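Internal ticket #5521
Category: modeling
Description: The requester needs a full-assembly model to guide mutagenesis choices. All entity lines are attached below as received. Residue total reported by intake: 575.
Assigned to: D.W.
Attached entities:
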Amino acid sequence: MNIKKRFAKISHLLFVTVCLIHLIPNKTVKPDEFLYTLGFAVIVEIGLIAVCAAAKKPSTMNLPCDIAAFLYSLLIVWTLATSKFSLLKEMLFPPPGVVFKQLITDIPQLLPHIGSSLALVGKGYALALVIAVPLGLILGTAVRAGSAATYVSKFIGAIPPVVYIPYGIALLPSFRAVSVMVIFLASFWPILAATMSGVLYIEKRIVDSARVLNVGKFETLCKIILPASLPQIFTGMGQGLTVSFILLTSAEMIGARSGMGYYVKNYSDLGNYTRTIVGVLVIGIVISLVFFLFNKLQKFALRWR
Amino acid sequence: MSKIDIQNLSVTYEERGDLFTALSDVSFSVNDGEFVSVIGSSGCGKSTLLSVLEGLRTPTSGTVLIDGKPLTGTGLDRGVVFQQYSLFPWMTARGNVAFGIKQTRKGFTHKQRLEIADEYLEKVGLSEASNRYPSRLSGGMQQRVAIARALAMDTDILLMDEPFGAVDAKNRVILQELLLRLWQNEQKHKTVVFITHDIDEAIFLSDRVIMFTESPGTVSKDISVPFPRPRERAALLHSPDYADFRSNLTTLFFDTEAKIGETEEDWVVI
């Protein structure tokens, strides 16, 4: 690859645009903290150049370039609409630099909230996983396809778990316990249903092979049925994780005293929209990271496919 | 005493409300160390017969004796090779073979089992691919692994259900020769029941060919294969005796087929 192919990208042009629009005079009164915007853009650009310099074939550069182009475009529109032309209400839509500055100064305050949220999801989700997978494996081997158990699990699974929140508050001693219960219920049903259908649709050949090898009952469950249904189990786990985070943030917004959802709710109640946006960004980043790790785990566990 | 003794075996099962007789009064025996092929067109119940021998299906009536003892369910005295997709996809080639060894041969450490597995994978010519998952192996290679697994289990009896039926013609020949070589080289020959619909395959491999008719499936002919061992494919194919024998067998095969054609309406529905 020559230099031109490697570095002649629209992303870099957009980066220059991000820098140049700051020459336009501000319309807003408050400082727009443009150094933070530029700092963010420079970090992205350094990363992008590093990726492009290291890329062995052109196709590996596509995704990073597209992501960078998206971020730059967002910054341009955001900056122009706020500090430069004041198209949006300043109080509701702070310029990007202000948000970035707030994000950085709030990191020490945010970390305990993130920890609190992840602890809730971790507890509820892990509990669901530990119960739903073995139960699904046992039920799946015990019941026939299309029998009552599958319909029951479909029926209960169809109930949006948010509706359990008020009942949970009446039932359980603390709000954290309610959150764990709701997250547990939210992830339990998709994982159970997926595990059961995974077991029910294992190829007959696989089961026959295990039978002619005289594999014991317990070993069949652990070494044959479980890995054979793992692809479906992971689908259910992904669904469960998605619903868990929806429920987590909903629960935190209803009555928590900590957590990422609380952070957003609290500051929007107080009218601090800069921090509200910071909270939304942080939630996005944290959930994306969790799913990134989840996908890595899934890819590793199903590497035989 | 015969290794496998099948007496008046019948299998009837229900299919969409109708009772269907898959096997009717099947009797034959297989001697210790004998290679027997069961040949017949698809739907003649030959695979049902094998599933009874595997212990996966209980016969409606009749008995199967192995070493004089009645067969009850699956057992570790019998190694099985299915037509395809019988490997566990989440285990490597080596893992699959080692898993089979773990089931039948006790008293080995995990490491020793892997060593035995490698030894057998080398025998089937798959040393290079031992760490690959079945999804990264061709159909023929998968069958090699399945054969390695069955042999490594070191059972007296080998049950093979059209093991090369889904393999392309060229690989089928290679696999037949491989199987024959491995079987002949064993110090104590395994007793093999081999299901096929390929006449050449049956002659080349077996000591005896048992022909099945369909509806209901039962033994129509029991023919000894006269060619001496060790057999060599090229020499065998060019001998005039082979051509005669094959043509006789084909005639018999199509005679039974023709009879079926006449009675096609007579599906036994009870």
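Resolution: model delivered.
Comment from assignee: The CA atoms of residues 247 and 253 of chain B lie 10 Å apart.
Ticket closed.
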